[in-house]
Amino acid sequence: MKIKADESVCIGAGMCALTVPAVFDQSEEEGTVVLLQEAPPQDLEEAVRRAVTLCPSGAISVE
Amino acid sequence: MSELTMPTTRQRPLDPPEQLTELRQHGALHRMTYADGHQGWLVTGYAAARAVLASPHFSNLTDKQHPPIKAARMNLSDKGKAKLPPGFFLRMDEPEHTRFRKLLTGQFTVRRMKLLEPRIAEIVGERLDAMEAAGGPVDLVQEFALPIPSLVICELLGVPYEDRSEFQQDTKVLASLETAADDALAALGRISAFMYGLIQRKRAEPGDDLISGLVETGELNDEELTGVALLLLIAGHETTANMLGLGTYALLTNPDQLAAMRDDPSAVDNGVEELMRFLTIIHLGPIRTALRDVEIEGVTIEAGQTVTLHLPTANRDPSRFPGGDELDLARPAGGHLTFGHGIHQCLGQQLARAEMRIAFPALLRRLPGLRLAVTPEEVPMRSDMSIYGVHRLPVTW
Ligand code: HEM
Ligand code: SF4
């Protein structure tokens, strides 16, 4: 799995960081998404998919 | 002309109006006649509500919207729209909205809110001490549900809590559907003046609070700062307060769920999400207006038509939350729409979560004998307010 995050559409709602803190963080300044790892371990893939559906702005995606 | 007008009468205090549940069985989108005669839409389905909120083709500008119900205060949108202060970004579209929101998101991150947890726990503890010292029965709204979020948001923003008499009455007036437009305008004027004054003071004597920080960025003028601060103060007040009040009522009338919240620490985080989903205190909106023709689930919403998203009904859509009419703290409740969706999704949601995750279990553990001091039927519900909840919650222990 490879994650993509687009800070320019992120609204800093924090659903990603709340759902998978090991993969997503938020920047100190703007609160927008910071990707901690692009290719998460398999046991986190389901949680990452959940974060993608929870994100209100469509800023994160997986392929 | 659609015969449907916005249903508001609830048969049971915690369930959406039955008429809406029935409508949802026939589809997600329904033609509806608005209070001013406008032929718009009512959305009762989960997927459709989410799609509208996520779409960039819907506006949240007040002057484009028609009122779904005849609330005296809705006239504010005609008479008072010029008075909404310039920084009130909830009522802005892109790209203006982003400019304001980006200045604030850094202050409301998951991590920042974690840092606030010890102070929130302290505030909750102090309220519980005061309740214990006074002895029951007390009104839980006045003693617990309202002061906690109020103290927290005041500290975060740097608003002196002693000044609350200057704005708490006005935020209440603004949230009431019965308030006449003139009174709402007067209240908005007073509370804006209070905030404007506060911003002047922060400019002269900055503290390490959020408003001082915003002033220091130099990005916003004083009118914009007033609007931003006002939005945060209003939004941070009544919302969490009503979740705490109504949530406690829901738990007291569902004792097995109450026991889970009290006794099982691992049930708390999701339990709070489930309370949010089940109670959906934002019960008359959000409202949006199409900027161009948009197709949602095969239905065309025409440019200029207003859409009301009925979140309490959408949050019980069985296609998303099977058996959703039951309160079940163990159900996977993530993805509920109670904080909205799309670019306006609640900025303060991680703060609200932190407050609720601390306050509910603390209350139930400190006062294990907590019970209603009146019958459930005697608890006055906030059907007359833009945010649902209980007006009062007499409890003892
Ligand atoms: C349980 C408590 C809360 C609920 C249910 C709630 C609900 C909501 C909803 C549904 C929206 C979106 C409205 C729309 O799309 O038209 C929203 C926006 C907002 N909320 Fe909350 N909220 C809560 C607590 C808070 C708190 C504690 C704050 C404190 C700062 C806050 C600040 C805001 C702000 C500033 C917006 C506007 C965001 C934007 O337009 O980008 N809310 N809230
Ligand atoms: S959930 Fe989406 S909008 Fe929210 S911080 Fe993460 S990427 Fe940004």
Polypeptide structure, described:
Chain B: One of its GO terms (molecular function) is monooxygenase activity. Chain B: InterPro entries: Cyt_P450, Cyt_P450_B, Cyt_P450_CS, Cyt_P450_sf. Chain B: Belongs to the cytochrome P450 family. Chain B: Keywords: Heme, Iron, Metal-binding, Monooxygenase, Oxidoreductase. Chain B: This is Cytochrome P450. Chain A: Ferredoxins are iron-sulfur proteins that transfer electrons in a wide variety of metabolic reactions. The complex is a heterodimer of chains A (63) and B (397). With 63 residues, chain A is an alpha+beta fold. Chain A has a single domain, classed as Alpha-Beta Plaits (2-Layer Sandwich). Chain A contains 2 helices and 4 strands, in the order E-H-E-E-H-E. Chain A has helices at 15-19, 45-54, and strands spanning 3-5, 24-26, 33-35, 60-62. In chain A, the strands form 2 sheets. In chain A, strands 1-4 form a two-stranded antiparallel sheet. A two-stranded antiparallel sheet of chain A has the order 2-3. In chain A, a hairpin with a 6-residue loop joins strand 2 and strand 3 (33-35). Chain A is globular, with a radius of gyration of 10 Å. Chain A starts with a strand and ends with a strand. Chain B is α+β, with helices and mostly antiparallel strands. Chain B has a single domain, classed as Cytochrome P450 (Cytochrome p450, Orthogonal Bundle), CATH 1.10.630. Chain B is 48% helix and 8% strand. In chain B, the strands form 3 sheets. A 5-stranded mixed beta sheet of chain B has the order 1-2-8-5-3, with helices on one face. In chain B, helix 9 packs across helix 11 and helix 12 crosses helix 15. The N and C termini of chain B lie far apart (53 Å). The mean pLDDT of chain B is 92. The A-B interface holds A 11-14, 17-19, 21, 25-32, 50, 53-54, 56-58 and B 53-54, 98, 101-102, 104-111, 334-335, 339-343, 345-347, 349-350, 353. The complex binds protoporphyrin IX containing FE and iron/sulfur cluster.
